[in-house]
């Protein structure tokens, strides 16, 4: 699972040195610290999963790497150089591609036009599109990555959510991404669709790309991840390698860790009968001595 | 980046070639084409003069008068915006050329060139203001519509003392300019106005540009999802400002035809309400009001439908009072047909 392949000779960094490394990154918006002392490294051929509850700082973290926001403390090193991105273009030019949850695809345009949008292959002074060539390349790239879209002329809006994610990812990879940031790619998808996207993430990793997989589903993360970072209230709560953690531990950590344990004790003490005796009338007596606040006056 | 994981796999065997019918039906202009055929047959039966080949030239001329402006208005609509000042901008351009040439006693062509510069500037201003403020194009161009409408009348009265520009028909350069913008010639007994030729040429170029060039791809993208287009590096602002300038260019061209066809006189109140005709033609032709979808050829067919109905009503001997009502019904019908056809095409 964790083996890294050798890549094209044009790869700037070796497989073991991180392409993107964050050291003690912090970001404050006015008097609010959205991120504090976060360190993270992304290596080629590795999937780094960033997990966290809503508001944990996941979005802020990817926005810093994607060039939408600048950080306020710490250092970000990209390809061995310390960088501050001032626009998404700069991040893109450094080989970092971000596939956002709301997708950067125009729904009424055909698959192949979307695939090449902004990077069209053209000839002549009028920049005429080489449609046949673009369709062929789009088809090859998509097939190579294991997604089949029968009709490339079909508008992207008619594809399923999973297929759309895959087109967006395939596009990022084809246009030279070395680091791929995926913002909750499985959040809005069904089980099968998620499976397709997860398989595709693994393919991207096998192609030698460093993947940052943002999710709040520990099951999805554990299926593909090499490295896990759990954020909580803007800080790193857990930073571990796959071999050092089980799915149960990850789930527990993700769901709130010790807080969840406390909660589960509390709930169990509250009313154990309620779980097993669903069909029967509510056992009133056992709730009398609990510490629940919702019992009313 | 070349990917090194697997050898290229042959195309998916579930892919079968789509039938010609299915591909035809998925074109945005198909609804308007069917509508145009129905209207043509209808008036061929109902209005005897409609069958006269000599009237074909007149029908095409009427279509071209709307159609030239429908070209940029369609492109703009596909790019997600629309321009309410398009109708009066035509008049502004014609008046500018006429008034400048007359008042400064210049060669007519100087006025023509200055009018072009002004028209492009108005377009650029519309686009720039829109991008700068982020207001909807409805509001911004409604503002320019009133400004231009007022200026047309006020400046004309101030300089010429009347509500129309002074005639420039005896000035230097008039005959050559008229030859370019408003001449006519005969083909087998049918009188063809030169603007019809220009119109067909403009439609051909714009249709090719929209479907076969990078700019065309970007126009679809900025109308379909401007944020997505920006994220992949499409210069959204430049594309949209360029589209408004295209409206300016064609407003200039139509304004010149207006000036030179009427012996160098333009009425300053002209053009109000024309903007809706351009928009109707574009919508009938399959352009989506919300952007991202449509066709230039469809817009041209929309303009043809407009002129066939306008003249067909006259040729049939009906009271032309009914024309507007008919036009509104056409618009509704066309939108519904477009909707149905689009859904059917998607189901295939």
From TrEMBL, chain A:
It comes from the Bacteria. The keyword Membrane does not apply. Gene3D superfamilies: P-loop containing nucleotide triphosphate hydrolases. Residues 272-297 are annotated as: Disordered. It comes from Kribbella capetownensis. One of its GO terms (molecular function) is ATP binding. Residues 20-258 form the ABC transporter domain. InterPro entries: AAA+_ATPase, ABC_carbohydrate_import_ATPase, ABC_transporter-like_ATP-bd, ABC_transporter-like_CS, P-loop_NTPase. PROSITE patterns: ABC_TRANSPORTER_1 (PS00211), ABC_TRANSPORTER_2 (PS50893). SUPFAM superfamilies: P-loop containing nucleoside triphosphate hydrolases. Keywords: ATP-binding, Nucleotide-binding. The keyword Nucleus does not apply. SMART domains: AAA. This is Sugar ABC transporter ATP-binding protein.
UniProtKB/TrEMBL annotation, chain B:
It is a multi-pass membrane protein. GO terms for cellular component: plasma membrane. Its main location: membrane. GO terms for molecular function: transmembrane transporter activity. The chain crosses the membrane at residues 30-47, 59-78, 84-102, 109-129, 135-155, 190-209, 241-260, 272-289, 296-316, 322-341. It is found in: Cell membrane. It holds the Pfam family BPD_transp_2. The keyword Transmembrane applies. Keywords: Cell inner membrane, Cell membrane, Membrane, Sugar transport, Transmembrane, Transmembrane helix, Transport. Part of the binding-protein-dependent transport system for D-xylose. Probably responsible for the translocation of the substrate across the membrane. This is Xylose transport system permease protein XylH. It comes from Kribbella capetownensis.
């Amino acid at each position: 699972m964790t083996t890294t392949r050798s890549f094209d000779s044009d790869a700037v960094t070796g497989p073991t040195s991180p392409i993107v490394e964050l050291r003690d990154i912090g970001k404050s918006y006015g008097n609010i610290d959205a991120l504090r002392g976060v360190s993270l490294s992304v290596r080629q051929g590795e999937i780094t999963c960033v997990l966290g509850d809503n508001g944990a700082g996941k979005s802020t973290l990817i926005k810093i790497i994607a060039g939408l926001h600048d950080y306020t403390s710490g250092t970000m090193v990209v390809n061995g150089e310390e960088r501050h991105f001032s626009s998404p273009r700069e991040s893109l030019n450094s080989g970092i591609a971000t596939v956002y949850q709301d997708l950067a695809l125009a729904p009424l345009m055909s698959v192949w036009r979307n695939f090449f949008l902004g990077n069209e292959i053209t000839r002549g002074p009028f920049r005429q599109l080489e449609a046949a060539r673009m369709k062929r390349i789009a088809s090859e790239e998509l097939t190579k990555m294991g997604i089949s879209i029968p009709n490339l002329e079909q508008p992207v809006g008619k594809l399923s959510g999973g297929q759309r994610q895959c087109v967006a990812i395939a596009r990022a990879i084809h246009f030279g991404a070395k680091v791929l940031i995926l913002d909750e790619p499985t959040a809005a998808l069904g089980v099968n669709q998620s499976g397709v996207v997860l398989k595709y993430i693994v393919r991207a990793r096998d192609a030698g790309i460093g993947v940052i997989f943002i999710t709040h589903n520990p099951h999805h993360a554990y299926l593909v991840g090499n490295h896990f970072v759990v954020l909580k209230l803007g800080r790193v709560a857990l930073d571990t390698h796959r071999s050092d953690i089980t799915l149960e531990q990850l789930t527990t950590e993700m769901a709130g860790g010790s807080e969840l344990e406390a909660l589960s004790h509390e709930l169990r003490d509250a009313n154990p009968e309620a779980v097993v005796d669903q069909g029967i009338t509510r056992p009133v007596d056992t709730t009398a001595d609990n510490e629940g606040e919702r019992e009313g006056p | 980046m070349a990917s090194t994981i697997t050898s290229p796999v042959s195309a998916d065997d579930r892919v079968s070639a789509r039938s010609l019918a299915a591909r035809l039906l998925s074109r945005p202009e198909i609804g308007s084409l069917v509508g145009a055929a129905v209207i043509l047959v209808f008036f061929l039966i109902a209005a005897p003069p409609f069958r006269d080949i000599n009237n074909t030239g007149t029908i095409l001329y009427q279509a071209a008068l709307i159609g030239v402006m429908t070209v940029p208005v369609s492109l703009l609509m596909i790019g997600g915006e629309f321009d309410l000042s398009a109708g009066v901008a035509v008049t502004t351009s014609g008046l500018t050329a006429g008034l400048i040439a007359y008042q400064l006693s210049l060669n007519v062509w100087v006025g023509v060139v200055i009018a072009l510069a002004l028209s492009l500037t108005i377009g650029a201003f519309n686009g720039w203001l829109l991008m700068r403020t982020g207001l909807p194009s409805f509001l911004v161009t409604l503002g320019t519509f009133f400004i231009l409408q007022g200026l047309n009348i006020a400046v004309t009265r101030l300089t010429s003392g009347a509500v129309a520009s002074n005639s420039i028909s005896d000035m230097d350069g008039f005959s050559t300019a008229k030859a370019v913008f408003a001449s006519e010639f005969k083909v087998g007994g049918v009188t063809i106005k030169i603007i019809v030729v220009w119109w067909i040429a403009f439609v051909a170029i714009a249709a090719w540009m929209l479907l076969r060039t990078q700019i065309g791809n970007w126009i679809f993208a900025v109308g379909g999802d401007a944020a997505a287009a920006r994220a992949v590096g499409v210069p959204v602002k430049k594309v949209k400002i360029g589209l408004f300038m295209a409206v300016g260019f064609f407003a200039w061209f139509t304004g010149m035809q207006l000036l030179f066809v009427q012996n160098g006189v333009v009425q300053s109140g002209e053009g109000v309400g024309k903007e809706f005709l351009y928009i109707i033609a574009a919508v009938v032709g399959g352009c989506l009001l919300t952007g991202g979808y449509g066709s230039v050829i469809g817009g041209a067919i929309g303009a043809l439908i407009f002129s066939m109905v306008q003249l067909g009503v006259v040729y049939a001997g009906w009271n032309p009072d009914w024309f507007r009502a008919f036009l509104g019904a056409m618009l509704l019908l066309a939108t519904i047909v477009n909707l149905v056809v689009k859904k059917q095409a998607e189901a295939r």
